[in-house]
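User: I'm putting together a small comparison set for a docking exercise, and I want a reference complex before I start. The sequence is below, and the ligand is zinc ion. Could you produce the 3D structure with the ligand included, as structure tokens?
Assistant: Of course. I'll restate your input first, then give the structure tokens for the complex.
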Amino acid sequence: MEFCPKCGMRLVLSRKAANKNVLVCPKCDYRKTINKEELTPQKVVNRSTQEQIAVIGEEEAKINTMPTVKIECPKCSHNEAYWWMVQTRGADESPTQFFRCTKCSYTWREMA
Ligand SMILES: [Zn+2]
Ligand SMILES: [Zn+2]
């Protein structure tokens, strides 16, 4: 949306040329010619959701949104588990990886 620089009225689109648009002021006679490309809204950039895997605690873990990995459950030997990372207290330490069996919900941490 653009406004008239002279009187502040909202400019109205008035098509005149094939590949150009003309904006005209309904109050005074101001007009502005613009390329059509400038009217096209910018494309929304799709950010990869893979980059946004949140570090979540075990308590607030949202099971249905968590990624899964092929790993054997130590309890029931099922071969798929949800996984997430938890940052331990020391900021220097690397985060601990947790797994939760998709079948029996047994939860265990990765043994480094
Ligand atoms: Zn005007
Ligand atoms: Zn299991």
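Residues 73, 75-76, 78, 101, 103-104, 106 surround zinc ion (ligand 2) (CB under 6 Å). Residues 37 and 43 are 12 Å apart (CA to CA).
User: Thanks, that's exactly what I needed.
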